[in-house]
Amino acid sequence: MSRSAHPAGPRHADVWPEGHYSAPPADLNALDPKVWAQTVTRTDTGEVSVGGIGVAALAEEFGTPAYFVDETDFRARARAWRTAFGHDADVFYAGKAFLSRAIVRWLHEEGLNLDVCSGGELTTALSAGMPADRIAFHGNNKSTDEITQAIEAGVGRIVLDSFQEIVRVAHIAQSLGTRQRVQIRVTVGVEAHTHEFIATAHEDQKFGIALADGQAAEAVRRALTLDGLELIGIHSHIGSQIFDMAGFEVAARRVVALLAAVRDEHGVELPEIDLGGGLGIAYTSDDDPREPHEIAKALGEIVTRECEAAKLRTPRISVEPGRAIVGPTALTLYEVGTIKPLEGLRTYVSVDGGMSDNIRTALYDAEYSVALVSRTSDAEPMLVRVVGKHCESGDIVVKDAFLPSDLAPGDLIAVPATGAYCRSMASNYNHALRPPVVAVRDGEARVIVRRETEEDLLRLDVG
Ligand code: LLP
């Protein structure tokens, strides 16, 4: 996948991207369960339903565009991660993927912990009743206010991201008369994306403290001397949308080597390691993600093996999946508007949302699937590009896909796997009103984040 996009988004006049699936799927009405949320199904009338409710009724009641999250699927995925990692490990859902108070309550009920990376996420978590000791606080530039808020709330851990932060957190904790449990985030010289990983000697990035040149060892040395800190472990996060476990293997090996070095130098065996998030999901039928139990088994085996070799007690492992839990559980429902056929090229299908509700295609060249969901069709497939209504040619939702050639304005189409990093990265570009998030379950629908209104826009604009 290309990582270099046109400044205004991916190029928009090319024909067929190399290496892309070149033929339409055998059945345009089929819904690949890999890509769609668990309860999504086509009913006898040909309409698609989610959580037991047809999309036409959902569009009627909640409008479009809107995100619909399948609560049954979310809970099942959260539970699958929890069960796969068992009692000797912890799962921290990464709230940056998507966070709301309902989500926090579901996580709490399903026994998951929560990773937050801003004061706003922390406030949301606390206000929905997540116990503070089950929250990890992240960020490469936490403000003094955020650190104070986190320590006062009693968060279970702060993940230290820099040398300055080691001192800052220690100082604030001490002045509050407490000792804060912390991990140190290291960069292990591994960067992983999808099917490959790259091992680099030095990490050219803003996060964490490099293992290279003894920097992480020095960070541990400093943290161990400060009264305000209780160093409980080492943290590593290697990338996003990863299918290949090899990157985690290298990361785990390097983190365990640091634990062994710490034991040799200080006589201390740090009790925890966190291997971060980044596990991939299926955006299209071409993607083959791993199941949580396979991931848990692979990570457990790697860490146990490396610890045995280094004669270390196996530390408690934690992971931070965001996308892998929430990503597949939601779809975005759009109404088709303008249709512009370009003879011999493709058909542009405009929808009533766009880059304001899904920036990932413009930002990362991300790939998505799309289907006609308000009815079935036996018409011939046509190559489409689903675009938004923003004043920008890079405003693309789905780069290349097939929809039936009888598609018409007023039809409903849905983009699956939009649970992660869509609503959480949504914007008001062109003064778009950010869509609602509606939870559906067993025939009932409930707004968990309401649609923005023009009043909301004007309330911020003080004139
Ligand atoms: N832990 C840490 C420390 C992270 O930085 C992240 C993501 C996660 C966990 C969760 O990663 P996940 O399992 O959700 O992949 N906006 C981008 C993704 C940015 C991820 C940043 N960190 C996207 O839309 O693909």
Biggest sheet statistics: 9 strands, mixed
Number of domains: 2
First-last Cα distance = 44 Å
Radius of gyration: 23 Å
* Shape field: globular
Number of helical segments? 12
Helicity range: 25-40%
CATH class of the largest domain: Alpha Beta
Would you report the number of β strands?
24
Residue windows where pLDDT falls under 50 for at least 5 positions: 1-19
What CATH calls the topology of the largest domain is TIM Barrel
Q: Name every ligand kind in the structure.
A: ligand LLP
Tell me the name of the CATH homologous superfamily of the largest domain: Alanine racemase
Q: Give the percentage of residues in beta strands.
A: 25-35%
The mean pLDDT is: 94
**Overall SS class:** alpha/beta
The CATH architecture name of the largest domain reads Alpha-Beta Barrel
How would you characterize this protein structure?
There is one protein chain. The chain is an alpha/beta fold. It folds into two domains: 41-70 and 328-460, Lyase, Ornithine Decarboxylase, Chain A, domain 1, CATH 2.40.37; 138-321, TIM Barrel (Alpha-Beta Barrel). 28% of the residues lie in helices and 26% in strands. Strands 4, 17, 18, 19, 20, 21, 22, 23 and 24 form a nine-stranded mixed beta sheet that branches. Strand 10 and strand 11 (196-199) form a beta hairpin. It is globular, with a radius of gyration of 23 Å. It starts with 40 loop residues before the first strand and ends with a helix. The structure holds ligand LLP. Ligand LLP binds at residues 94, 96-97, 115, 138, 237, 240, 276-279, 320-324, 360, 364, 420-421.
